[in-house]
Amino acid sequence: MAPAYWLSLFFALYYFGYGTFLPFWALWLEHAGATAGLIGLLLGLGMAVRCVGILGVMSRVRAARHLLPVMQGLSLLSLLGFAAFYGWQSSTGLLVLTVLVNLIYPALIPLSEAMASRYIVQIQLDYGQTRLWGSAAFIAANLVVGLLDERLGSQWILHSMVMSLGLMLLLSLTRPQPLPAEQPASRAGEGIGRVLRRPGVGRFLLITALLQGSHAFYYGFSALYWQQQGYSTSVIGYLWGLGVLAEILVFAGDRKWLGHLGARPLLLAGLCCALCRWLILGATTELVWLVLAQLLHAGSFGLSHLGAVRFISRELDEGAVFGAQALYASISLGMVSGVVLMVSGPLYGQFGGHTFWLMAAMVLPVAWLLARPLLKEQKQP
User: Fold this and answer.
1) Rounded mean pLDDT of 173-192?
2) How far apart are CA 101 and CA 154, in angstroms?
3) Does residue 136 contact residue 14 with C-beta atoms inside 8 Å?
4) What is d(CA 339, CA 183) in angstroms, rounded to the nearest whole number?
5) Mean pLDDT of 329-343
6) Phi/psi at 259 (5° precision)
7) Are 238 and 143 a contacting pair, CB within 8 Å?
8) Which domains does the chain carry?
9) Contact between 277 and 362 (Cβ < 8 Å)
10) Nearest to 252 by CA among 1, 8, 6, 3
11) Whose CA is closest to 297, among 107, 95, 135, 165?
12) Integer Rg of the chain from CA
C-alpha cells in the first residue's frame, strides 16, 4: 500500500478512537460510576502518565526501521488494555487501567507523526492532505458515538474504542511500500536529552505546551458542561464535529495556502484564535457563540499543530526529528495537559464554565515568547 494511503487509514482509525475518547470518555466514566472528582483525577492522571509512556517508547526509536514494529506492538497492547475495562470497573480498576492504557495508547501519536515526518522528506508527502483523514474520522466519531450514546447507552463509547483499535491492529500488520527509509549514518537519530538541549527547542516546547495545554479543560469538561446547560449528547457531538471540520479545512489548504509560512506565524495565529475562543466559551453558552468558538478550533489547534510540524520537519535537521516529536507529544500534548486536567475538576466545581477564562490567561505568555523570531534559534550550525 502506498505510504500516503496507509498513513491516511492509520490516522483515520486512530483518530476515530481518539474522537470517541476525548469528548465522551468522561461520560463513560460517569456511566461506570465515577464521581466528577474522580473523573477529573483519572483524565488528568492519564494525560500526565502518557508523558512517561511516550518518552519511554520514543527513546527506543532511533531509526525508521523501528517505527512499524513498535506501532504493531502498541496497537495490540492498546486493544487488550481497553478491552479490560469490560471486566474491571471498580475505582481501583478504573485507576489501574487508566494508567496502563495511557502509557501505551497515546504513544501511537508521535510514532505516526514521526513516520509522516520521514515521508515528508523521503517522498514529499503532503502532510495536510494525509492528516486531514484523521480529523475527518474524529468528526465521524463525534457524530456516530454521540448518537449511539444517546440512543443505545454509554456502553457504546467503550464498544467503539475497542472496534477502532481492532481495525487499527489489522492495518498495522500490513506494510506501506516503500517503508520509511533510514537516515544517513552521519545524521543518526539523537537522544531526547540532546535534542532538548538544542537552542530554541525549550522555548518551542513551552509555547506549544501553553497553546495545546489550554485545550485540556475543553477536552475533559466541555461535554459535561454543555450537557448540564441543556444540550443533548448529539448536539455536543455536532459541536465537536464542527470544530474538527474547521481543522480539516486548515489541513486541506496547508500546502496551497500555508506552505510558505514557517512555524512562528502559524503559532502566532494559533495564539490569537485560542485567546478569542476561550474568552467566548467562558462568557456564554448561547448556540451561535458556541458555533463561532468551535470554528476557532481551526486556529487554536489546527494552526498551532501545523506550526509544531513546521518546526520539527522543516526547521530542525533530520537527526532531531524523532526526539523532537517525542518531546512535543509527551510534554506539549501530554504532561502539561495532564496537569491542567487534574486541577480542572476542582476548578470546574468552583467556577463552572468560567474556567475557560483561566485557559485564556494561560496562553497570554505565548505572545511574549513569540516576540523574538524562532528560526535563528532553531537551526543548528
Assistant:
1) 72
2) 19
3) no
4) 35
5) 80
6) -60, -25
7) yes
8) 3-378 (1.20.1250.20)
9) no
10) 8
11) 135
12) 19
What is the secondary structure of 42-102 as a DSSP string? HHHHHHHHHHHHHHHHHTT--SGGGHHHHHHHHHHHHHHHHHGGGT--SHHHHHHHHHHHH
Give residue 75's identity as a one-letter amino acid code.
S
> What cell was used for 156?
457504546
pLDDT for res 170 = 96
**Which grid cell sits at 25?**
470518555
Residue type, 139: I
> Range with the lowest mean pLDDT among 6-15, 88-97, 112-121?
112-121
> Which residues, 6 or more positions from 182, have their beta carbon under 8 angstroms from its beta carbon?
63, 64, 65
**For residue 376, with 0-12 CB atoms within 10 Å meaning exposed, 13-18 middle and 19 or more buried, which class applies?**
exposed
The CA-based angle 325-82-41, given to 5 degrees, is 75
Side chain identity at residue 110, one-letter code: P
5-17 per-position pLDDT tens digit: 999 999 999 999 9
Which residue in the block uniquely carries the three cell numbers 467503550? 158
Q: Peptide bond before 178: cis, by omega within 30 degrees of 0?
A: yes
CA separation for the pair 89, 94 (Å, rounded): 6
